[in-house]
Amino acid sequence: MGIAYRGQNYHGWQSQPDGRTVQDKLERALAEFVGLPRGEVVPTVCAGRTDAGVHALNQVVHFDAPVAREIFSWVRGTNRFLPEDIAVQWAQNVEPDFHARNSARGRQYAFLVRESAARPAIEAGLCGWVFRPLDIDRMRQAARALIGEHDFSSFRASACQALSPVKEMRRIEINRIGDYWRFDFEASAFLHHMVRNLMGALITIGSGNQSPEYMAELLAERNRELAPPTFPAAGLYFLGPIYDPHLAVPRRTAAHDWLPRVPVELARPDEAHPYVSGTPAKQ
To answer: Binding of substrate: at which residues (predicted)?
Structure first.
């Protein structure tokens, strides 16, 4: 299944005793749809765990279905029992050896940030906020240091359970759409709080408090204590995992068109590095 959700009302994805997580809501909804006795759930495995306040546009989960139903029924039927800020977007059958997390070849996140003198209201919880002007050239220059395979210990939360801090950053795009900034990240995998910690460094550099070279210095130090604070979760979206094409797992949902995007004709690749792109800062 592909799931979309707003994260501000939940304590993240992973199940917790208080039941206030996306996984808890989904597993109970599945159980109600298939008619399991009260108290039982349908266990699920997700492609990427999200923290409290983080949203998802295409969170992929797999589970062993206890009953046979038409594909469209898994979508509509499960959604009947989900709150309005969580919804199944698609469903399909997969081979028995498919694994939502282990079969993924990469993952994508986007971070939406509003730059303005006043804090957000309508979009509160759905975007980050900065009141100091950001410089796209400084941030793009800093982002180049992140491309490739690196030890990302400087951007790893102390509670991270990953076996290795070494990940491959494949793409970073920084675009401005009106008063909003959109940061896109694609990597083989991400450490706990990695995107939010990278955002803390990028915003520090973009606002002029540090030079672009600061990013490479942090990366080389491999020390989280030397890096800027973790950026707030509001505005972080899990766009979804990437699988081998032959699996035919959908890579997008309708919500991808809702999130602001830079027009294709305005996007320009960075000539110095093809993996980092963006649009000029607003004049």
So the answer is: 109
For residue 46, list its beta bridge partners: 61
Nearest-Å Rg of the Cα atoms of the chain is 19
The answer to whether 108 and 240 have CB atoms below 8 angstroms apart is yes
Annotated catalytic residues are 51
Report the alpha-carbon distance of residue 264 to residue 239 in Å, rounded.
18
CB half-sphere exposure, 235, CA atoms < 13 A: 23
Helical ranges in 35-152 per DSSP H? 71-79, 136-144
pTM above 0.85, yes or no: yes
pLDDT in tens, 153-204: 999 998 888 999 999 999 999 999 999 999 999 999 999 999 999 999 999 9
What is residue 8's predicted lDDT score, i.e. its pLDDT?
Answer: 95
Residue 123 CB neighbours (<10 A): 13
Whether residue 109 is annotated as binding a ligand: the answer is yes
Pick the CATH number of 2-90 from 3.40.309.10, 3.40.50.1220, 3.90.1200.10, 3.30.70.580: 3.30.70.580
Question: Shortest CA distance to 250 belongs to which of 98, 90, 114?
Answer: 90
Strand partners, 240: 108
Question: Distances in Å between the alpha carbon of 32 and those of 1, 26, 41, 89, 201?
Answer: 16, 10, 8, 18, 44
Q: How many CA atoms does the CB half-sphere of 81 hold within 13 Å?
A: 18
What CATH number labels 106-245+272-278?
A: 3.30.70.660
